[in-house]
């Protein structure tokens, strides 16, 4: 397994609840795993944990393993080598990843690409006149162009695991398709795995093999992409799909999830989603979310699901001759 998070909990000083709460996740070689949820649900922190990049002052329990390496135990040169070769991350804000006074060519050379390889990478991610781009500085490029540069930098190290945090959100649809195809080629040629963070649920359905849904720092559902979008089990997942527009479908009424996403100052005695859930019952206010296994092998953390699964299994057993 390229990446394994096992009951990872991250607590910040002064926060009323954990930033990440018992998060378990895995990414296998050649697999694209989606991570979806509202802003503030813990998606980026989960990805950064694979690099050992936790917020200052944070305390962590559980484990994060990249291959055979215990990431939370890595220090010094071992940690730098892990970040430089094993795992690469494409951040949501490309300007935060680039030194504003260094040229684009310097950025790529720092990642091991010689001039010819740097030109090849910039061309591959759709930048025109790549020779000239090498001599330019970040302020001379648009946000979308910088996102392509950052993706080229991630590809330069030929990582086993790629963490893509909204990697294509600043790109037009045509370039987005080209970049996703390029990343798919990387996966096929190198056996690389990818953790793909996105707010676009339909993109996750089309591009990912499996999808994790996060809410309030917890994984509330994990399924294959096909199963998740065909028959979502958790009320939060259904809510996300109900408020996601579909291209060309004007008959679909968007139904936003009521209320607001929780902050780190919000404390929950039971299910964090109970206050916004249309299916909530009084018992949900005290029920500690526990993942229940679904018939298709996925999981969902909803109090009503074990009953539904048991009922479905009993019905199937009665119908068997």
Automatic annotation (TrEMBL):
Alphabetized InterPro entries for the sequence: AAA+_ATPase (IPR003593), ABC_Ni/Peptide_Import (IPR050388), ABC_transporter-like_ATP-bd (IPR003439), ABC_transporter-like_CS (IPR017871), Oligopep_ABC_C (IPR013563), P-loop_NTPase (IPR027417)
SUPFAM superfamilies associated with the record: P-loop containing nucleoside triphosphate hydrolases
Topology versus the membrane: Peripheral membrane protein
Boundaries of every ABC transporter domain copy: 3-241
Locations listed in the record: Cell membrane
Entry's Gene Ontology molecular function annotations: ATP binding
Keywords: ATP-binding, Cell membrane, Membrane, Nucleotide-binding, Transport
PANTHER family: DIPEPTIDE TRANSPORT ATP-BINDING PROTEIN DPPD, OLIGOPEPTIDE TRANSPORT ATP-BINDING PROTEIN APPD
Family, as annotated: Belongs to the ABC transporter superfamily.
Protein name as it appears in the record: ABC transporter ATP-binding protein
Species: Streptomyces koelreuteriae
